[in-house]
Design goal:
Layout (H helix, E strand, L loop, with lengths): L5 E10 L6 E11 L4 E5 L6 H9 L6 E10 L2 E2 L5 H7 L4 E4 L3 H4 L6 H12 L4 H14 L5 H5 L8 H13 L5 E5 L7 H18 L2 E5 L3 H7 L2 E6 L2 E7 H6 L4 H8 L50 E5 L2 E4 L29
Parallel strand pairs: 3-8, 3-9, 6-7, 7-8
Antiparallel strand pairs: 1-2, 1-4, 4-5, 9-10, 10-12, 11-12
Helix pairs in contact: 4-5, 5-7, 7-8
The structure holds adenosine-5'-diphosphate (ADP), iron/sulfur cluster (SF4) and magnesium ion (MG).
């Protein structure tokens, strides 16, 4: 993981300062390689979007990255000036959002916006930029591409707008694409088409994709690795197949256990809502942040903060049950990783 194309290390992002600061991201680390997709899942408010925005330094004040490293091909982006970051955004790391209308300019035509992005990052004539824009609209398979060039975003359907966003995002052949719930607002069939398109472009251009989603079916089908976030931290990190075969963290286990078929989650099933609330990110309680909701919590949990435990290569979990020096309560779990003989999850 140390040599990944995009490597985020111990990222901390806060909103505000002092005792009332919101600690939205608290020590997040992950890596993603060329041509691979990392899925990030977790309930609303767990810090997924703030993590992606931190990578690109697109946070609005009072949000700021307090510490950490964001390495792209080995070089840390966090010390770069705003001017240097502008050369990274779009060109080397692109981002697409749930609602393309927030990212598209309503006063410019689709052609103007794609051509503008191309000209901002490549030394090409206006005519050449427009030719490339048309080519990209064809590649993302918008219907009537010549006509779309002259249309405004509000004249397009949600699915068409997201295709335009992908055209803009991929037009500079970025090394990394951050996709923040890119299909959440779309119809089911359109969702699959957009995700297919992303997979196709990824394979063709070798892009590394960070896919934020609440759709576990999408993670199972399209992601190599998955990071499960809870209260601003990654609580479990695993190859997607391993996660669904044997989830380790009680939060992941609870999420999967509430799906009808957790070994093969279907797409478009909403992320299950667990009873209880995540902790405040301002006055963070001591101990494990999941303790008040955890069915496997024991005496130490509200007291001691769990650290990342490496289980096997590419697999980590942040839970005291897996820490070697922690004495576990007898009778609470049937085996070390919380699984019964028949593969079921211990509730
Ligand atoms: N502009 C803001 N001001 C203060 N806190 C914020 C702001 N944006 C996000 N947060 C905090 O960061 C946390 C993570 O938000 P976010 O990354 O958007 O969650 P999600 O996982 O749903 O994408 C939220 O719970 C919220 O407390
Ligand atoms: S540390 Fe304790 S409370 Fe936290 S997830 Fe593990 S068992 Fe549950
Ligand atoms: Mg979000």
């Amino acid at each position: 993981m140390a040599d990944a194309l995009l490597q985020v290390e111990d990222l901390h992002t806060v909103f505000g300062a002092g005792r009332e600061a919101v600690q939205a991201v608290r020590g997040v680390s992950f890596g993603v390689e060329r041509g691979e997709t990392l899925g990030i899942v977790g309930e609303s408010g767990s810090g997924k979007s703030v993590t992606a925005l931190s990578v690109l330094r697109l946070l609005m004040p009072p949000g700021r990255v307090a510490s950490g490293r964001v390495r792209l091909d080995g070089s840390d982006l966090l010390p770069l000036s705003e001017r240097q970051m502008r050369a990274v955004r779009g060109a080397r790391i692109a981002m697409v959002f749930q609602d393309p209308m927030t990212a598209l300019n309503p006063t410019l035509t689709v052609g103007e916006q794609i051509a503008e992005t191309i000209q901002a990052h490549q030394k090409v004539t206006k005519a050449e930029a427009w030719a490339q824009a048309l080519d990209w609209l064809k590649r993302v398979r918008v219907t009537l591409p010549e006509r779309r060039l002259r249309q405004y975003p509000h004249e397009l359907s949600g699915g068409m707008r997201q295709r335009v966003m992908l055209a803009i995002a991929f037009s500079c052949r970025p090394e990394v694409l951050l996709a923040d719930e890119p299909t959440t607002a779309l119809d089911v069939t359109v969702q699959a088409q957009i995700l297919d398109l992303m997979d196709e472009l990824k394979a063709e251009l070798g892009t590394a994709i960070v896919l934020i989603t609440h759709d576990l079916g999408v993670v199972a089908q399209r992601c190599k690795d998955v990071a499960v976030m809870y209260a601003g931290q990654i609580v479990e990190y695993a190859p997607a197949g391993d996660l669904f075969a044997a989830p380790k963290h009680p939060y992941t286990q609870a999420l999967l256990a509430s799906l009808p078929d957790w070994r093969r989650p279907r797409s478009n099933e909403p992320l299950p809502a667990l009873p209880g609330q995540p902790p405040s990110l301002v006055h963070i309680p001591p101990g494990c942040p999941f303790a008040p909701r955890c069915p496997r919590a024991f005496a130490l949990c509200p007291v001691r903060v769990p650290a990342d435990t490496h289980l096997e290569e590419d697999r980590t979990v942040r839970c005291l049950l897996y820490e070697p020096d922690v004495e576990k309560p007898a009778g609470l779990i049937s085996d070390e990783d919380g699984h019964t003989e028949d593969g079921g999850i211990v509730p």
